[in-house]
């Protein structure tokens, strides 16, 4: 059975690509350091009026990061299926959560792009700006579960040498907690929990992308190990390949019996 | 921390291993050290904000009841002592005594939580909330996050008490005992830093 190692690796590299695209695009748009929630409507309107081209370009590019997020999530589900087998609630939850996370990148971008599209009343520009920033930080409601189910699956792995190291399971669950405070940015116009705050923005960024880099590395390790074991014929404990091995064994036994009776 | 040095994975009667070994397992330490790093970051942000608004922060700190703070500290120290005793009893294969000690720690933790909630309600009544000023944002954030860890620790302690009563704990149970104990000590340790930062700084 072809395990598609090359394509697995390609899909894993979507994660660093997502990171690069996100940071690069946001830097172009001038969004890496968020504006303060306390900025006046006029200041907000001026920001969109004075930086229209870079905002549009940067944010359109940033939308690519949304799609890339789904691609690496699918590869994660692919590996999680090797832990859970045919009955895989966690693997499928992970995929669904990763897919929804894409919205988190793209919808806010379109609110901001709408603000950059025409000159408007400053109050309306402020509203569009708010509509983007509040969910951009605050939309943690899928990534917390994405992390949690990955962590749970890693810790549930019954192999002698687990597919992912156990510390990664703990880490994933722990990082989910780090995302949580950002969800409460609606309560604040300033301070560490506001959308531009040390916790809601900077800790969130560091957590997501730091964890993503660790995840990339471990996914690549898992694929490499899968490739080695397939070549050596020692791919053990994979629920689906176990099934194939048993079928192959039964086929050999059936053929041996045929020869005996022939 | 000499407490950690003596907590080892030797089951009674087992040969002493000369390989370097981590209490619990590596994963727990990623979690604990990671948590400590993040809390350090939050403390640093707190101190930076404090230097920006010394008057607000000093006023907030004065307003808090230092006696409460001392009581909290003593309660948590006692709870950590119970946890140490529990692990001791486990090593002497006295599961029931260990369970009692875990429950003692649980009781202390529960007392801490009850007092904490009372203090929060008292502050809210006085008009201090998460959004009233920057000091109280940090106050509720730091004590809230700490309380979240404490609550997780409480569930853990109950589970460890139940586990301790079962006979012949194996390796994976020991990982839970040691890892859980270390997690609880971390909860205690975090309070040791939060208390002076919030309650004692002039």
UniProtKB/TrEMBL annotation, chain A:
Coiled coil: none
Lyase keyword on record: no
Record keywords: Membrane, Transmembrane, Transmembrane helix
Membrane-spanning intervals of the chain: 12-34, 54-74, 95-113, 133-155, 167-187, 199-220
Name this polypeptide is given: DUF4386 domain-containing protein
TrEMBL record, chain B:
Parts of the chain that traverse the membrane: 26-48, 68-87, 99-118, 138-162, 174-199
Domain of life: Bacteria
Keyword Coiled coil: no
Keyword field: Membrane, Transmembrane, Transmembrane helix
Limits of the Heme-copper oxidase subunit III family profile domain: 1-202
Record carries keyword Cell inner membrane: no
Coiled-coil blocks: none
UniProt topology in membrane: Multi-pass membrane protein
Chief localisation class: membrane
Pfam families: COX3
InterPro entries: Cyt_c/ubiquinol_Oxase_su3, Cyt_c_oxidase-like_su3, Cyt_c_oxidase_su3-like_sf, Cyt_c_oxidase_su3_a-hlx
Subcellular compartments: Cell membrane; Membrane
Family: Belongs to the cytochrome c oxidase subunit 3 family.
Designated name of the protein: Cytochrome aa3 subunit 3
Organism whose genome encodes this protein: Sporichthya brevicatena
Lineage: Bacteria, Bacillati, Actinomycetota, Actinomycetes, Sporichthyales
